[in-house]
């Protein structure tokens, strides 16, 4: 079997047979990879806890006919422990991992920029760099933007005027009173400003903010659901 080396972040795991797991990873150079970790559920597994969700590892993977097989895993960053110790960070990490999983649909799609964004978000969560729900909201907006779905926030999507007072997910962003469609709804200016800061990763503008405005959270959720074409389960329960 051909071997390849890459680094990856564990997005989720699923039981397989008696002692194995299928590990879904976002890798730096091979996109999304699903690979079997043999014996990982045994107490003396050679993988230890290195293939748990949110772990970042250097991997040696054997190409299989249907599923690849993880041959070696060395920990690069133990994000899992500090994230799992804090419920809000854990919830935010679930939103982030689910978004990455759903966004990168095709396996072996090249997604270097998505990988860097994912690592940055988990690193910020593990270090408690900002409020967890701001980190996950910012990640969702930036990841979708990288995929080509960037909302227009500072001006009307139709006329470009700066007096936007409505927001429409299907129309792609802010709208003025003259152009707004029936799919839009009224939006407050602070919400648009907060969305802009989250989209740009402008943490200076978010200083002192402990959680997104309710309207901001709703728009992030709707934006993700509409463009991913399915709801983010972990956002609904958080
Ligand atoms: Zn307009």
TrEMBL record:
InterPro entries: ARFGAP/RecO (IPR037278), DNA_rep/recomb_RecO_N (IPR022572), NA-bd_OB-fold (IPR012340), RecO (IPR003717), RecO_C (IPR042242)
Matches recorded under Pfam families: RecO_C (PF02565), RecO_N (PF11967)
SUPFAM superfamilies: ArfGap/RecO-like zinc finger, Nucleic acid-binding proteins
Domain DNA replication/recombination mediator RecO N-terminal positions: 1-78
Domain of life assignment: Bacteria
Keyword tags: DNA damage, DNA recombination, DNA repair
Keyword Ligase set for record: no
NCBIfam families assigned: reco
Function in brief: Involved in DNA repair and RecF pathway recombination.
Annotated family: Belongs to the RecO family.
Name of the featured protein: DNA repair protein RecO
Protein source organism: Bifidobacterium panos
Lineage start: Bacteria, Bacillati, Actinomycetota, Actinomycetes, Bifidobacteriales
């Amino acid at each position: 079997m051909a071997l390849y080396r890459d680094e990856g972040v564990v997005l989720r795991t699923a039981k397989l047979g008696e002692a194995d797991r299928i590990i879904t990873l976002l890798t730096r150079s091979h996109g999304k990879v699903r690979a079997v970790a043999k014996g990982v559920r045994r107490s003396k597994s050679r993988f230890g806890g290195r293939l748990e969700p949110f772990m970042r590892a250097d991997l040696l993977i054997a190409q299989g006919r249907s599923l690849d097989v993880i041959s070696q895993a060395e920990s690069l960053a133990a994000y899992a422990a500090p994230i799992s110790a804090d419920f809000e960070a854990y919830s935010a990490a679930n939103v982030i991992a689910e978004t990455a999983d759903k966004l990168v649909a095709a396996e072996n799609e090249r997604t270097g920029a998505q990988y860097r964004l994912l690592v940055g978000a988990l690193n910020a969560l593990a270090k408690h760099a900002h409020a967890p729900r701001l980190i996950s909201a910012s990640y969702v907006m930036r990841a979708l933007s990288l995929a080509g779905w960037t909302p227009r926030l500072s001006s009307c999507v139709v006329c470009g005027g700066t007096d936007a007072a409505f927001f429409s997910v299907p129309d792609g962003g802010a709208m003025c009173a003259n152009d707004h469609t029936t799919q839009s709804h009224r939006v407050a200016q602070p919400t648009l400003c907060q969305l802009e800061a989250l989209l740009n990763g402008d943490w200076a503008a978010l200083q002192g903010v402990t959680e997104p405005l309710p309207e901001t959270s709703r728009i992030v959720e709707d934006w993700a659901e509409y463009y991913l074409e399915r709801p983010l389960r972990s956002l609904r329960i958080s």
